[in-house]
């Protein structure tokens, strides 16, 4: 396992700011403005004609948002990046920009549930067909990608945490001429840099680890200059799901500690995963770090995983007895969280990927936060003891 970003790279990230506007401030300012005025008529003409590049209107470009975009692009080893109002805005924009009616998309199974719902509703109405494949089965992926326009990946996948050989999947997509897109929210660029593995577009729910403090909902897409320009020019400008300056500022703050936080989440979650695996009342632990080896390209693991409880555990009592693990969706912040599978299965929203992919009502998903491994383990042990009949 490598250490993710080197120390020098982290220092470079901390130093990322717009010198001209920051008065030498170590933290970039929040440029909370909707528009930017021109010096004179000629400058306006130069800008509108495309001869000069400058800030005009914050829907398409804002200095604080730009600082975040440049930091993230550097971390993902991408030429450029574009921020969005949410992870879902990043997902929908990335997919819609590169498909047309009549096209077919291939997606790995067990993608983030709202991505699954986007594919089953809006994309379906746009006459874009989506087929699902097991991302661990390279032959099935190769067959499914024949004639497909776009390959939508997520690794590890949501809930089941299936970790794929992303480089191998990207190569198959390239062979078939399909645009490859990956949701890298779980691993973050600290543990997985899909651009270096041959993926075209890397997106994040920045609401998770990039922000890291559960105080912002945001998204971002990184890739080649050309593809990012198209996303900025079409999806960002016309669909309009832009990232705000204050949210972008919170994200730049989160990125500075990303590497340190990820290593702490990794260590704690691995230890808790191992201890859960050793228990009789835990029948299965879905954590890529507990396998013999990680797939190529994934150099570490994060704090989110799921496990199955035996019939002797009352899941409601277990959840209600936990004190440090709070019941709640999302993840990636300081706090530890739990989501019971049986509640997700009872969710009204349709289409429901939990049913489509056979999620077990005996499973729970936890996010291991930064409260400390021993305190979190005591919490889990006490709640399991209380939940036994
Ligand atoms: C939360 C999440 C999203 C959606 O992001 P939002 O910022 O909530 O819109 C996408 N992918 C994954 C893996 C997520 O966990």
Automatic annotation (TrEMBL):
- What's any one GO cellular component for it? cytoplasm
* Family that this chain belongs to: Belongs to the trans-sulfuration enzymes family.
Cofactor(s) recorded in Swiss-Prot or TrEMBL: pyridoxal 5'-phosphate
Tell me the residues on which N6-(pyridoxal phosphate)lysine occurs.
Answer: 208
Source organism per UniProt? Martelella radicis
Highest taxon of the lineage? Bacteria
Q: Which InterPro entries match?
A: Cys/Met-Metab_PyrdxlP-dep_enz, PyrdxlP-dep_Trfase, PyrdxlP-dep_Trfase_major, PyrdxlP-dep_Trfase_small
The signal peptide, as residue positions, is: none
Q: Give any Pfam family that matches.
A: Cys_Met_Meta_PP
The entry's keywords: Lyase, Pyridoxal phosphate
GO BP annotations, alphabetical order? transsulfuration
Gene3D superfamilies xref list = Aspartate Aminotransferase, domain 1, Type I PLP-dependent aspartate aminotransferase-like (Major domain)
Protein name in the entry: Cystathionine beta-lyase/cystathionine gamma-synthase
Q: Which molecular-function annotations from GO does this UniProt entry contain?
A: carbon-sulfur lyase activity; pyridoxal phosphate binding
